[in-house]
Amino acid sequence: MMDTEQRQPAGSPGEGEPVFLVIGKLRRPHGLQGEILMEVLTDFPERLEKGVIIYMGDQRQPLKIRSRRWQNKAMLLAFDGVADPETAGQLRNELLYVRADDRPPLPEGEYYHHQLLGLEVVDETGQPLGVLTKILDTGANDVYIVRPARGQEILLPAIEQVILDIDLEHKQMRVHILPGLIPD
Questions:
Q1: All domains of the chain, ordered by start, with CATH?
Q2: pLDDT tens-digit readout, 13-46
Q3: Strand (E) positions, the chain?
């Protein structure tokens, strides 16, 4: 489930800088001990344990988790140095991040979205189709949005029949184009 680098313009971090992934959004203080409600935006909330360092806001301010507990579908977090509701309230609406290089490895053939974004997409013959710029989560399967050098975006369903090979080392995805996938 997102740092001492300088602020980057909108977009990707600079070469060699860590990638951060959003894991949650702080909502409102809870109780008198400095807890704050977090909207969970990660698939790995179990990794947010006492003592873990997470990063807050655009400045990636490090925060150490003092405690955590579930409240319905949200999580109540407390951080070292935040001991009252007034201080917790100053954190309201901030995004929380973890470093991407601190995420658990995925099984063979599965990828984090940040690993796929920016890949060059080519067809079976090696012809360039464009760059993977966005991933839509549709529920059934993801849809990859490929932006060609010219023309309309290409929407590719993330299914075995279409996605043939992903080569992270060479930053390339090889695909099979089903009839109707490329606009005329």
A1: 20-102 (2.40.30.60), 113-175 (2.30.30.240)
A2: 555 567 788 999 999 999 999 999 999 998 788 8
A3: 20-30, 35-40, 53-56, 61-71, 74-79, 95-99, 120-123, 128-137, 142-147, 154-157, 163-167, 172-175
